[in-house]
Amino acid sequence: MVGGGLEIRELECFLVVAEELHFGRASERLYVSQSRVSQLIAALERRVGARLVERTSRRVALTPLGVDFRAALVPAYGALRAAVEEARAAARGMAGRLRIGFQAPWVGALMETVTDFQDRFPEVEVELAELPLSDPFGAVRRGEVDTAVVMLPVLEKDLVLGPVFSRQRHRLALSVRHPLAGVGAAGKLTAEDLATVPLISAAGPAPEYWREVQAPTRTPGGRPVPRGPVVRTLQEGLSLTAAGRGGMLLCGTTGEYHRRDDIVYLPVGDLPASALGLVWRRDHETARIREFARGLAERAGRARRVEGVERMAG
């Protein structure tokens, strides 16, 4: 039963009748007799205190109150069914598949979280998929992955932003032959220096606010930043960087992971820190996603505490 003495079966019967507008078809869908359908509708109408369904020998129709009642009931009933299904799934355990997409190198807290998760839930099959640089959110929206680790910022209303981790200074990737390579190595590179470097940026459906952080069009002082080539993958960008076609702003982890002799990764002192975050669809949150997010948050918090102690000791 639900609030006010209402029976779930009465609500379900009303919604089926409202959809079919035919007592015979409603009875077939509910696996009950037509007389039972009539009884359930009548009981609901007594509880509400007014007619919800008009029935004649020729047609079935909702009353104006019935139309309003259905509109209010559908989302609430859907949420109730989803809660019941989720409880059933939890009762059956965590068995299933968790598909994780990633844009950044699979290192640190992320790798440790996956290992911990697989140890705790061996019944879950974990799959990993690399996301294109040009489309951080597409695979999540299309259901190709359940959750994804992406570079911030994330301002998508249909996505949940979970744990944020790996906050590091932005690094500018440049060819070792670039005039700024020596300046940056001395620790003097600033965001205003970006005005002298064509920035390589991501193509594709990535939102404009996201691309602006990865490849800003102006320095903090307002100077325009020249546009470099547009790429779809990180490897394309790094190859063009090594060839001297421009520079790329990357998170610190990416720079450390993709070390190569023909590229230098220079910290940019006065840009906001880069960060990674775990995202998933707001309408597709599962127990597996929540457990993985919880484990990642714990790992990231532990890493931040260790870094804080090390900075104090230093």
From TrEMBL:
Highest taxon, organism lineage: Bacteria
Any one Gene Ontology cellular component term annotated for this protein: protein-DNA complex
One function term, GO molecular function aspect: DNA binding
Every HTH lysR-type domain range: 6-63
Alphabetical keyword list: DNA-binding, Transcription, Transcription regulation
InterPro entries attached to this UniProt entry: LysR_HTH_N, LysR_subst-bd, WH-like_DNA-bd_sf, WH_DNA-bd_sf
Family: Belongs to the LysR transcriptional regulatory family.
Protein name: DNA-binding transcriptional regulator, LysR family
